[in-house]
Amino acid sequence: MLHRLYIITGKGGVGKTSLSLALAKKLTNEGKKVKYNSFDQEDQTALCEELNIPSLHLELEKSAEIYMGKKLGSEMVASWIMKTPFFKSLFNMIPGLAHMILLGHVIDLLEDDPDLTIILDSPSSGHAMTMFESSHNFKEIFGTGLLVEDINRMHRFIYGEQNLQNYIVSLPTKMALNEAKEVREHLQSLNFKNTEIIINDCLSPLLAQKEDLPDFLSIKNSLEKEVIEEYKDIASKKIPHSLGEDFQSVIKDLDKNTIGVLS
Fold this sequence. Notes:
Blueprint: E1 5-10, H1 16-29, E2 33-37, H2 45-51, H3 60-72, H4 75-82, H5 85-93, H6 95-112, E3 116-121, H7 125-142, H8 146-158, E4 164-170, H9 174-189, E5 195-202, H10 204-207, H11 215-230, E6 237-240, H12 247-258
Helix pairs in contact: 1-12, 3-4, 3-6, 5-6, 6-7, 6-8, 7-8, 7-9
């Protein structure tokens, strides 16, 4: 089933960006209207153009300006406010507020275009948890007002039936999967039901038919299979290691062979 918003999260270096881009490419090739978003991190527009993947890059301050402009009814006033030292300091002191505003901007775009799906590439699992927790925290702190009204609107969307799918990406090691399990449990405690763990970069599927493996590969293969078996109840989706020689070929390899497990 196609969701409106996919959030790909996990620890650094587990392949979140590769999987996010590959999923966006797959849905684009299927004729879906989709955009990849490198949420609050390095702009991937050039790479997306090279791979023919529609992208959406949002700058934090610009998103905040658009958000406040809608609330105040004046982009000019919002632009002036954003230039004040107070607001710049506020975003540095309370990153959760900035992330929540960015998420609100993404949801605005989705609500304005019912045919659009956005793939949100989250910088880290801590980032994703902060983003979601912030909306609940600010709602409790402020109680009422424009910000709370907007949080309620955001919650209606992200808790809507089949709107949001969270994928937590992990490497096939016990430590990584334990961390992914904790993130999944935390997101589920916030009532995010569509939250799954994806085991990425698995060597064992590629080595299954190989004989006379070098000792180090044989040991790694055995350990990986044991870990995957141990965590099969919480992480049944696996993506094999890509043999692509560069980032572009990895994306194409994932799109062609393995990314179907995510959609």
